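B., you asked whether I could sanity-check this one before it goes into the benchmark set. Here's the sequence:
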Amino acid sequence: MISKNMKYVIPLTLIFTLFAGCATIQLGGGLSNEAANSTPGVPREVISPEIRKLLESARQQTQVTKNYSQQYFVIGYPNGDVPANTGACTDVIIRSFRAVGVDLQKEVHEDMTMNFSKYPSKWGLKSTDTNIDHRRVPNLRTFFTRLGKSLPVTADTADYQPGDIVTWDLDGKGMTHIGIIADQNDESTGRPFIYHNIGGGTRLEDRLFEWKITGRYRYF
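And here's what the prediction gave me:
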């Protein structure tokens, strides 16, 4: 019997299949966790309490989650989590949502259980897996869309508001990524920063339009 505290370590050759992207790549120059040349974006007084909590969790993750890992972990359910000092891009979202009382592990699992055929079948699974389903970008995209949280993808920086969830195609071949729009902008470009983990831990960086945006979602 497998203990819930044990973890499986998947060979590197299987990582892409397991996570369907959320890849460890570092395209272009990244900023430090304390974003350089930043300026306030949307005034905090007009941001909802839920989004404030969401972003505060993301900020805290930049101080804790210093590593990146695509290991398959056997975790508890509900509210299961991988070690706090590591994780993939999806874990930034999962942890931030839990700060607002939304357990995406539970929410995604319950929706997948009732509507399994509506979710991507690219991994060849025949049933749900509470250890990994919510940690896959395509599943989160499907879940947010099914809830009616999807918004148009545009090139207008004003459309991207604090707390929005954004997904990307990193290489045109299905390598996916996900992050959260922050409440700070780059003072030289006006672009909003994003909280994400693409290989060096959770960071606050100016990379919104670095890759092809595939989805924008506003949950709160």
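One thing to flag: Confidence is low (pLDDT under 50) at residues 1-17. Otherwise nothing jumped out at me.
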